[in-house]
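Record filed here:
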Amino acid sequence: MHLTYLDSNSWLFEIGSKRILLDPWLVGSLTFGNLDWFFKGSRPQEHPIPENIDLILLSQGLEDHAHPPTLKQLDRNIPVVASPNAAKVVQQLGYTQIISLAHGETFTLNASIEIKATPGSQIGPTLVENGYLLKELESGFTLYYEPHGYHSPSLKEVAPVDVVITPLVDLALPVVGSILRGNKNALELAQWLQPQVMLPTAGGGDVIFEGFLTKFLQTKGSIDEFRSLLAKNNLSVQVIEPKSRDRFELQLQKRALTI
């Protein structure tokens, strides 16, 4: 299993000989509703579009997960697995193979990787987007991704999970509260899933954020503090801080079967 972090929420997964592009923002700036003054993300250098992509995986329909300028540059014939909200985005862009997954539904890619949608981030009062469990069928290795730190208790039923990608620190706004929920939420998730490896996502990498909203964003905690939390709770988990555009291999151990 190889991973490449492409900043913010964007990843390239190489699992079971398949290349999966997750929540890609690779070109142009990141804004919400074209309101640059309110919030804008940019990077010194755009990422090249990865080649030979077997699947695009989208967890949410918001621009920081389903980024229209990036999706316009990708081949519209690449299959897309998406939350129902994100499926609407790629449908409007002319993608030809769209699999919309509701919570609990699964899709299997070329008899190689099983992808299951889990309840994820709550966006507004009624919309709950997707997290994902990816399972390499040959080895049985599993990976869980949720970009805002909203984790359904139903995940306990699928433990153990080998790799977890989710926020490990909090990002909060006054009055509103946490936008990214790490720290105690991530610790609870580690207790549920007993992962071998955890990696942070969202907001990181080689990205510059500016605009009115950024004046009020507050980071609470750090990766080192999270490592200490794991140790205090007797959890033996490797925490990896990925660098932008570095491709690295995860060294995972086969777990003993329990009866």
